[in-house]
Each structure stands twice: as C-alpha cells, then as structure tokens.
Amino acid sequence: MGKAPKKKNLADKVRKAKAATEIKNNPFEVKINRKKFDVLGRKSKHDVGLPGVSRSKAIIKRKETLLKEYKQKNKSNKFIDRRLGEYDAKMAPEDKILQRFAIERQRAHGKRDVYNLNEEEELTHYGQSLAEIEKFNDTVGSDDESEEKGLLSAELTASHFGGGGGLLRKKTSGGYQEDEQGGQKIKSRQELIEELIQKSKQEKRERQVQKEEAQELTEKLDQDWKSIQALMVKKTPKAENVDKPEEKAKPEEYDMMVRELGFEMKAQPSEKMKSPEELAKEEKEKLQKLEADRLRRMMGDEGGDGVQSQVHMSADDLNDGFVLDKHDKKTLAYQDGKWNIEEETEDDKEEEGESEKEEGSEAEGENEEGEEGSGEDEDGHSDLESEQESENEENDEEETLNREELKARQEAAKAELPYTFAAPESYEDLKDLLHGHTPDNQRLIVARTQKCNHPSLAAGNKLKLQKLVGFLMEYMGELATRSPPELGTIDKLIPELYALCQMFPEAAGKSMQSILGDAAHSMEEAVEVKGHAAFPTLDMLVYLKVTALLFPTSDFRHPVTTPALLFISLTLTKCLVRSLQDLTSGLVLCCLAVEYVSLSKRFLPELINFLSGTLHLAVQDKASAGCMVVPPFRLSGKYSDLLVLSNSESCSSWRKENLPLSATQQLELKSDLNKDHYSRLNCLSTCLDLVKRCCLLYKDLTSFTHIFQPIRTLLSKHLSSHMLPSPLQELHSEILEAISSASVTHTRLVFEKKKPIPLKLFTPKIVEVLDYGKKRGSTREEREKERLKHKYKKEFKGALREIRKDSRFLAREKLSEVMNRDAERKRKVKELLGSLATQEGEWKALKRKKRK
After folding, report:
1. Per-domain residue ranges of the chain
2. Residue 49, helix vs strand vs coil
C-alpha cells in the first residue's frame, strides 16, 4: 500500500517458519474451502486457508502505512536528513564521514576568505590603486589658487607637517630628485619652500594663460556662428512683412482639451436615492398638507403656515434677521400743555397706568389748546377731521373688499378637488367617489387614493388597493356600456390602472381572468343552445384592448393574454355576421388579434379566414368566384352582400376615416343599401389595411403563398380595383405585389435516401461448447477482451474490499483515540477532585482545631 516491503533476514525466516508450523497445528486457525465437485487435472491453490494469519498481516501492514499517513495528516513539519550519503546504501560509513568532513572544511575555508586580505590582491578605489593613492604625489597649490580644494600634495604635507626629505624623492614637474646614494646635496627646508612657491606661481600663470586662450577661442567661435547664422536664416523684405498679416499660432489639440476640461462642469453631489416607501410617505404628507390648507381656506382662516403676512421693509433694512427685544421708541404725551417723553417700564401694570395718565393729560392739553386757540387752529382741526373721515371710509371699503375676497376664496376652496381620499370598500363607494367629476378629476382622484393608501403606509392598504383594481375594471366596463360610451374617461383611467397592475399583478390577472371566463362561458352556452353567438359588446372589446395594454402579449403562454387570444379566435369563428355593426366588431377583433401577435408572429388561421370572408362580402358575382367560404360566412344569403358597392359616384367623394370603437354600437345598415356607401368603404378600407399588415407579418412563413392564395384570387379576378377609390386602389396593388413577390423556399417531400433498418430476427445463436464454462468459436481478440474484462471486475471487487477494510481500520483507530482521550480526561478529573477533597479535609481539620 504505497511503501516498499522491508528486506527479510534469516531471523525473520526462522520465526516465520516456526509460527507457521504452530499455526498449522492449531485446528482453530485453519479453514478448509470445500468444493462443490472435483475436476480432474485441475490444481487447487486455496484448498486450505489461514484467515487469522492473513488478517494479522493486513493489520500490521495497515499500521505501517495507512496509520502513519493518518497521523501525519494536516501536518507540514517533517525532519529530513540531508546529510551526504545518508540514503545511499552503497557507500561505506567511513567514506560518508570523509566526504562530510571535506565538505565542511571547504565551507569553513570559504567563510574565512571573505575577510582574508592577502598581499597579492590589489585593492582599488574608483579604479585607482590604494597603494598609489597612499604615495601622495599630487601637488596642490594654495587653497585660494587651487581648483580642487581640499587636496594637499605630498610635498606640501611634508613641508608643513614634517616628515623629512625622504618623502620628496620622487621627481616633480619642475624640479629634479636628488639621490642620497649618488652623493648629491640634500635641499634644506627653506629651499624646498621657495621651490614650492615658484611652482605654485608658475602653475597659476599657466592656468591664467589657458583661461585667456579659452576666452579668445569662445569669442571667435561666437563671431563665426553669427556669420553662419545670417546665411542660414532667410529674411523676408519689409514690404512683404507689412502686406502679410501676422498669423497667430493655432493652439494644439491637447491644449484645447486641457482648457475644455478646466471649464467643464464639476460633478455635484446628488441627494440620496429614496426607497419607494420613503417616496410614498412624502407623497402622502404632501397631500395631507395641501388638504389641510384647502380646508383652512374653505373655513375662511387666513392665518396659517401657508399665508405669509406682508411686512413693510425699508430701503435701509439689511434683512439679516436682527430684531430688537424691546420697543425702543419713546411715547409722546402732553402734560400741563407741554410734551412729555417717558420711557417704557418693564412692569405692564405701570405702563397701563402711565398710558391712562398720558391720555388724561392729552385730553386736558387739547382742551386748553382749544380754549386758547385762534381761528386758524379751528380750520386745522376741521381738516384733520375730514382726513379721518376719508380714512374711515377707505377702511370700510377695504373691509368690504376683504370680505368679498374671503367669500370668493371659500367658494374656490369648496369647489377645489380634495387632496386626500379613503380607499373605497365597495364598487358603490367608487361610483359615488367618481360621480360628477370630469375625466381629468377622476384620474386625479384615483391617483391620490393610490398615494394616500400606499401598502407601505399601513397594514391593510394592500388589500384595499387590490380591491380597487377590480372595482376600476368593473367601472370601465360600465363606462363602455353607457350611451354614449365614455371612452375618453377610460383612456384617462388606464395609466392609473397600469400603475396598480404593476404593483399587484396577481390581483389584476385574477380580475381579468374572471371577466374573460364569464364571457367565454356565456358564449359557449349560446353556441350550444342556438348554434351561433352574437359578437361581444363594446365593454368586452374594451377589456380585450386593456388586456393588451396591461399584460405582455409576446409570451408563449400567459395566464391572461393566452385566454384573451383564444376568446378572440372563438369569436371570429362562432359569431355570425348579420349587419355592418357585427362586421365592424369583427374587424375590431381582427385589429386586436394583429396587435396581440405583432411581436411573437404567431399564426392565427381564424384571422386570415375572417379577412378573406370580409373581402368575399364585397364581391358582386359570387357564383363565378368559385372560392370556398368558411363559417361564420356564407356563400349566399341575406347578409352575403353587405360590402357590395353599387354606386361608383360616391367613391370619388369618399375620404379615408378610422373606425372608432363606438361604431360597433352606432353603425347600422339602412333599409336602402345604396345609401350606406361610406360605411361600407370604411369597413373595406380597414379590411384591406389588415390584410396588408398580415402580409408583412407572415411573409417569413414557408407556406405564405398558399395561405394568401384565396385572397390573391379574390383581389385579382373578382374584386376589381376600378370600382374602388384611389386610396383603396393603392392598397389593392400593394397587397397583390407583396403576395406575388414572396419567394417559394420550401421543397417537395421525398423519402430519405437511407438504407432501411431491417427488423430484428429472433433466431437463436448456436455456440459450440467444448469445455464447461468456456466459450469456443470466438476470435483471439475477443477472448483477450473477455479475459481483461474478467480481470478488471476481479481487481475492482478486490479494491472495493480493501477500501472497506481500510475504512473499518481507520474507524477503529479513531474510536480508540477518542476512548483514550476520554479515559485520560476522566483520570485527570479524578485527580483534581481528589486533591480538592484532600484540601477540603485539611481545611476542615484545621478549622476544628481552632474551635478547640
């Protein structure tokens, strides 16, 4: 199981042999495999088995392999011996030790050589040898004159800081070197200093000369460049420069984009997106506030939050909200015939007393002035009185005007539509709520009812609005049945019904399903009793139109639109055409059917049949037509000539008009057939328009030409276009062109070019059997294949058996681990409890001693 077996030595063989003899002598360890029958010439290898031995061997093998893998599971740390030759069995132990020692010495030698500076190796600094740098041969002048500041030559260092003449033996650039061994005289310190000064002056002179030469060369180069530059630049004459205007450099595209981005509007932080619940709450609060304002205006209350009192503001007002806490103006009063200016006190009672005294003093002063006054004063008082009278009259007029305005506002508030409405509990409540209002006001009432009773505002509002959906549908049906039908009101209410349908699709679907189901049942009952049924009334047509607006018509199967489409097909098939009113209802149903299948392009044979029958009604000579008519139309009869045109003069004055839905109730055939050409032409125009739309809709069908062949025959042979008005003649030609231009893409049906499969014969296959259990007559490859299959099954069963045994072994090991852990935990718990009991006993004994 993954690991190579160990080598067997002599001791193992002896022990194994001994154990085998002992086991074989034990009858309880031996199992005899009985045979059903003996076969001559066949050797049996497993007559006698030792299950105990094989079981113990398997357990030992699993402990050495599977158990070790289980214990090392989820453990990444391992001890790996990486010593040289540890896993090489061919190497002797002495060779391993010698090679390990040599490698260790090499590693130690390499580490020591990192910091071992031998004399043979030459050290450098920026590519220059350190030995040459230490000689200090570079001569440097004074600090002021040297270009490289901070560098001292060896001679200067020796002269200023000592060191003798031994360091200055190298020959310099202006002097010579004296050798002691040659017997020449050694220079004194003073001579060396003078020589050094001369060298520095000479070097200074040389640098000055070089600088002057570089300056001269630079000036010369500048002059030469100016002369060359004049040749390179072509100068235009001044006259040409004057004539030509200066062309401004066009800005680059990058600069223009940078400027545009600089002046671009910066993104402004937007408000937080509100949830539908928050929006519904805000709408309700807004409507409640408007309703409270309307009620207040209706009661004549001018004071409130909505009315702002006009306050006079002077031109010097800063409008900064500053208001004085107290009234700082001083009161003007008379006392003993003189002005008396007194300030207000904080006490209100004192103010009232002072005001009374001031009024008394004013009265006395007025009396005294009246007695002492002259005629001029009397004239002045008369003018004042006249002014007061005029002011009083103006005030009375303003009061009457205010009362009239207040009454007008009250009447307007009463006539205004309320802003909040309670959800109707029944259909009668909805009728009372909408009765007497215009279509726009009815739409507003429904919208405000929906906003005031949003499902997120209260627990029972959802059920109320679901009921409102059914009430609105019933109300639309009643509006369609009135005379005249109020189709404008229905048109206004459809958006609100659509909003409710989006909010409660299940409730709207159930309401429409019940309406369609009732209509279908009543039609089926009429067909069973009479054999035919009447066309649906206007309210049912409105319901079918509303279904197409509220629910998707392109679905393959829908719980509302699919029954509606089936109802339309049933109506076009079972309802007889007995008047122009019935024909108009049928054409309206055809329009609805085309609208239903405009996206899905589903083929409706009832639609094509009804249009073909309608065109057949316009054929005058039906006997020569030779075409079949499918019910609900008849080849001949009382109502087979509804669309026959007998007066060609009325065709010239006819103008195309759309058929309204109300025509299904108002359009009736007159007793004189020649007086109703306009209605017939309108019906015929609608029919031809529908045929054209169907041609465009079904042109991709492979059987398009065969489906529209009867219509093509009627239009080309029996319904001539010279009897029709010019608009209908154009439709006539367009339809024929669309049908004839369609390409035939289908091919004829042929049998499939394939050899037929013969039937299975149940003749038995006879196989010659020479030996029991062995089949003969097969090839060598088949026998090899059978042998491999048998071997595969055998190995597969053996692998499954081993996997089950491994699983049981691991389960036993896990159980033993759990039991060992539990036993260890119990032992520790017992030890802890024992130590606690010992401590408790000692503490109690100590306590008893203290009591004694």
Report:
1. 414-503, 504-741
2. strand
